[in-house]
Amino acid sequence: MKRTRDGESEPAAAEDGSPGPSDSGGAPAGGSGASRVGATVRGALARLPSAEMYERSYMHRDWVTHVLVTRTDFVATASRDGQLKFWKKMPRGIEFVKHFRAHMKPFAGLAASPDGSLLASTSADRGLKVFDVLAFDMIAWIKLDFTPGVCEWVGGAGAGAHANASSRTLLAVADADSPEVRLLDAASGEGTPLHTVRVHSAPVLLLRFSPAFGAVVSADARGVLEYWSATEPFGLPAGEHFAVCASDLKVRLFSFRTGKTRRTYDESSESLHALQKDGDDAYRLEAFDELSMHLS
């Protein structure tokens, strides 16, 4: 069955005899490496479809605005009419899996988690939806109190040494009307941000997470690029120091790399009394506070 380029159809593939990718042909057997590469490129370009009919056509009913491929070998496509389709990569081509009427307005962002198990979509309808890619199911629908822009997963499995259980569903969502980027826990089902990142002076148009460095690269409407850490605002431990509380009522801070003492805090009552009597005015107690301390 032939399908025209502008025609509508169900998400199935059709074949005909028009030009299209083929397994036959390739680079010549002999010749230098450069000539073989050049012949391969020319052959690939020659086999690109350039006719009114395609060999294979994977259809949406409106303009396709977003396409991404997950690490789990699934393809997600989103169109201007708010439709989302999942496809499975096969040895040849892709196979339709499931169709969602995800949003009432065009998509603003579409992002897959680093491990390929989750997918998030944002739209001008102020909706944020989260999908389980492997189960082909929508698992969260969050109504936001702002108009979202692009989104990006900024943690979780597949995020390298910077991954942790609490960050698996951490999602960065840009505000389409301000320079702010909000960090949300997509698993909670709530639109209240855990933190708001304010490093830009114009609305953010692109967000990309680097699993190798645990950092986010963002670009705004003025062409400014920013690097920032998704974990830094929460004060998560960096693992460079550790503290020990001992029976001598002292707290010692050690460097993990060298094992040397970086600082010692004396929490004994004698030390505190000395600080209150001889230290700065900020540490001195009023007479009423001193009486309360002795009575206790």
TrEMBL record:
InterPro entries: WD40/YVTN_repeat-like_dom_sf, WD40_repeat_dom_sf, WD40_rpt, WD_LIS1/nudF_dynein_reg. This is Uncharacterized protein. Keywords: Repeat, WD repeat. Residues 1-36 are annotated as: Disordered. Residues 16-26 have a biased composition (Low complexity). Pfam families: WD40. SMART domains: WD40. PANTHER family: WD REPEAT-CONTAINING PROTEIN POP1. It comes from Emiliania huxleyi (strain CCMP1516). The lineage of its organism: Eukaryota, Haptista, Haptophyta, Prymnesiophyceae, Isochrysidales. WD repeats lie at residues 100-133.
